[in-house]
Write a structure and sequence with these properties.
158 residues; mainly alpha; 5 helices; 0% strand; binds fe (ii) ion
């Protein structure tokens, strides 16, 4: 079982590769579509699982709250761009411009998580809990994956 940190980093590596891949594709090609859909679904469930396992734990300590709130706020901002992109025609020039904003922001977000946030988290999550948190994270992520479309449909109804 990977530790919570390994599980998150593994996802980040996949997300970085997908960001590069999408950036190198053209218009509404099948390559772009496939990579974007994989990215969208995986980032959504990754972020939700981070919030429910990792960040909720950090928020339980006063000195972890600001860092956790900052990251969760960034999740919300990235989510907005992702929904915008989903509604935009992939072959329009605006799509790749907006995507590059998301790429820049998300790369920064992942770096911050791996440096500052992990350092703080290590003081809240004892080393003996690393694997249990990794397991919880992966479980939540898998469950979240099945909920994405449901949640989205609910949000559109509101
Ligand atoms: Fe995150
Ligand atoms: Fe992350």
């Amino acid at each position: 079982m990977p530790s919570i940190y390994e599980a998150i980093k593994e996802d980040h590596a996949r997300h970085r590769a997908l960001l590069e891949k999408i950036d190198g594709t053209e218009g509404d090609s099948p390559e772009r579509k496939e990579a974007w859909e994989a990215f969208y679904a995986d980032v959504k469930s990754h972020s939700a699982a981070e919030e429910e396992t990792f960040y909720s734990k950090l928020m339980s300590k006063t000195w972890g709250q600001d860092a956790a709130r900052h990251s969760v706020h960034e999740h919300e901002q990235m989510d907005e761009i992702m929904e915008e992109l989903r509604e935009t025609d992939m072959s329009s020039p605006g799509w790749i411009q907006r995507f590059r904003v998301l790429k820049h922001d998300y790369e920064h977000h992942m770096e911050e998580e791996e440096d500052e946030v992990f350092t703080r988290a290590q003081e809240v999550i004892g080393a003996e809990q690393n694997e249990a948190f990794g397991e919880k994270f992966l479980e939540r992520k898998a469950k979240e994956g099945t909920l994405i479309e449901e949640k989205r449909a609910d949000a559109l109804e509101d």
